[in-house]
Amino acid sequence: MDPTLAAVLSSWTLDGWLVVPLLATAAIYLRGWFLLRRRGAAQFDARRLALFLAGLAAIYLALGSPIDALAGFLLQLHMVQHLLLIVVAAPLIWLAAPQLPLLVGLPVALREVWIEPLLRASWLRAALARITQPTAAWTLHVAALWLWHIPRLYEAALASTAWHYVEHACFFGTALVFWWPVLLPYPSRAAEGRWYVLPYLFLAGVQGTVLSAILTFSDRVLYPHYNLVPRLWGVSALNDQALAGAIMWIPGSLAYLIPLALIGSELLYGKRRAAPNNRQVPVRKLLTGWHALSAAKGVVRTESPLLACISARGVGATKVLSLGRISSLRSEASFLPLHVIDAPRTLVRTARPTAHPIGFDLLSVPLLGGFLRWRHARLALQVPMFSVAAVVVLDGLLGPQVAPLNLAGVLPWIHWRGLLVLALLVAGNVFCMACPFTASRGLARRLLGGNRPWPRWLRSKWLAVALLAVFFWGYEAFAIWDSPWWTAWIAVAYFVAAFLVEGLFQGAAFCKYVCPIGQFNFVQSLISPWEVRVRQTDVCQTCTTKDCIRGRDNIEGCGLELFQPRKAGNMDCTFCLDCVRACPHENVGVLAVAPGSGLLGDADRSGVGRYSRRADLAALVVLLAFAAFVNAAGMVAPVLEVEDGLSAALGFDDRIPVMTIGLLLGMVVAPVGLVSGAAWASRWLGGRSLQGEDGKRRVGWRTLALRFPYSLVPIGCGMWLAHYGFHLFTGVDSIYPAAYRAAADMGFGEAISVAKASCCTAKSGDWLLRLEIMFLDVGLLGSLYVAYRIARDIWPSSGRALAALVPWAALIVLLFAAGVWIVFQPMEMRGTMNLGL
Amino acid sequence: MKDNSSEPRPAFKRRTMATTAIAFIAMTLVCSRALGDGGTLRLNETAGPYRVSVFTSPSPPRAGRVDVSVLVQDASTSAILPDATVNVSVSSFERPEVVRGYVATHEAATNKLLVAAECELPVAGKWRVDVDVESQRADEKPLADGRAAQSNATFTLEVGEPLPAWWDMTLWIGWPVIAIGLFGAHQVLAIRSGQRHHRLRHSDGEWERTA
Q: Does pTM top 0.90 for this prediction?
């Protein structure tokens, strides 16, 4: 193949900003199409799917193929690019009737919570109605074409990437508006006849011809850019312009004339084959297919098929009492907006299905579900983790005390921490599930009795809070991360403590009241997308044995005192799945939940109680949130320089005193002060009293100080992810030199040279920094949302809630800003250093 | 009780959910990128047997990483020479003794007709950029020692002060503001929608919209 042609053909781009939205749109459409097909919507056949995908492919062809790469050199290719967007992609997408599939394909929560209110907005509907009227649509389309072909604007688009985006968006957006009155995608229908399409398309063709002629017959190059760029294949700039005009003229005109001819023929002679009788209302066909009920005078009671198919669990699960606009049903022009939008939410009753679980159940996944239900599943996970822990301890005690060359210096502080937070984000508390420290629980109980109740005065998180604070201090004071020996002894202490506590006391006291790692996991798992919970509460109501908490047949019940019917959220849940195995009705699953749902509400949670009455829990949450930032800040160069400077100024030989003061300020004084201040300000702004059903009730400062801290979990988790993720991705290769060295010490193989940080090149630094910022961004949004929900929960009035939200939002934004500053600072590359062996 | 059910709603006849799909689909274009144009044209001249065109990106160039893309053509036929070997060297006018050299490759270029090199220009000011081209095809007569003909093109690039590191990440840091704005708008719409619908009455098991 000619090298030039080969170079051209290989000039495709896989730009994420283009590919990801296209794929996401395709996935949403595909899902909606599939769901509609399953419900008998024959209108959505394979042809429509193919049309939609072809439309998206046309967009990619325009923007990601060599056409885009060469558009800056050849005006004719630039013209092809624009024509792909205007006369290929836009009509293909409308022909696919994307409204219903795209809506149905969205997740239910997203559609009902976010999209529906938007669609109900009268101003939006009025605006969209206006721009899709033929006159307005035609004007917008033609105006966009002519404006962007003005040399000054065209040149601006060629010179600036941003303006190029705007140009493409204008072309495609106005093309969608233009083609809508022509194609009227299902379920739309013209108010009057479609005769307007004939002059509509004809005049569009005329203006296209005029513009094309200007380009084709001009005796000078209209766009100086093409005079400056190198000419390819001997095509002069003027010839290139003429060819571009010809391309716009002929294919462009055909794009208008062909539908004109087809529609004109249809109007004159009728359709060749029976089209769906619009008077019969495809909507009504859909309705009768799904339990349509009788229409009373002026009122229609029906089960909206749309709501049936977009409800949580299919036909029959949702009943809607429509607002009775029969004409709207019969006009089928937009039954969708009416039934979806006009039916008030209070009319929508969703009956919880009895045959299907709520949300996706991980236990229903083949193989995985079977494994998780296996009574020895936890042990099967704990054994390898125990083995790894044993190797870490041995190497830490016996190996060289050089952290990058020791498994105890690498595995816990780089790999395990990073994987821990990632697993919490995507899966849940899997590390507690596989915890090696409690693997010997059975043995410990046999040896030590295990029948003592945990002391009442210790039945809170205060002990765990203290241990966490001590750990964070010791981590920095003794540079535990840099000491395999200390790391090994901490692991040993953990095993001993777990053995003693589990052996002496009932239940899972070590997990619930002692283990610092467990507390970290509990708090972060409040935003996990999975939760161990009952499938159907009505099953639990008839259960008399309560085996989920009591156990049965040598299967233990929940040792953390979590009674499944009243359990809410992942707090205190170790994902041991004892409740799953103990439940005789198989009514406990690992269900998908909205991330962060465990942070909301003040229900009386089993084993936890009400958040508003647990100062120890709030303290734990606040400590972990602030520790995320303090811990990360303690590793960045500017902070270390300040520490060293203060130590020298104050005459200290080492940094421990200054570091201790810094930690006290950062993890105790500042959190207490900020949270207290925010609670006080919130109470002042939102109002101290609320008009409740039983008269006024006061909003206590303590209630606010104990409820709102849960809104800090997402931003705190974002910082943990950014920090530990940074160390994981930059130091993932560090396991090799440590492992090879350990193997060599044991006589297996040879040691290798230490690899430097694998990801810290200029290029990888870009994506890693973006990832860190993205974690913080998502954490910011999550925290703001949770704070908003808590505020609305306490103050039903939106105005007061917003006012009360301000101090907490300020605190969250402050933490976010701190996190952004931290990720931009150079960080100590722990666990990775260049050495020669 | 006024029965509005028989009254058509003209606005609805064109007010379809199709327009909401515009938002979804247009989003793909908002996120699109115009790649492959090589950047700003800095040089387009004949150098020996070659026609050399040099583009730089970003525009304006700032201290830090600058992409230099080169298109090599046969000066006499304008044929593109995709096999040409292109070396780019940069040196600051303030420290001309420090020269950084880069090999331009097709892999680094989006448009594979060009070759590109990512050059590090660490300080602001004037930089000399030399582009050395060598290709077997451009000149049928090799040099006396048998090597293929070489050519050199040079231009001066004015490099500005670097932007703050966070500047490049402005969009990444700031997009939550857009999300917050959208959420605020959503909440306003939801509240108004709830206020409108709370006028419903329940009478004898039938639901009706009140006037």
A: no
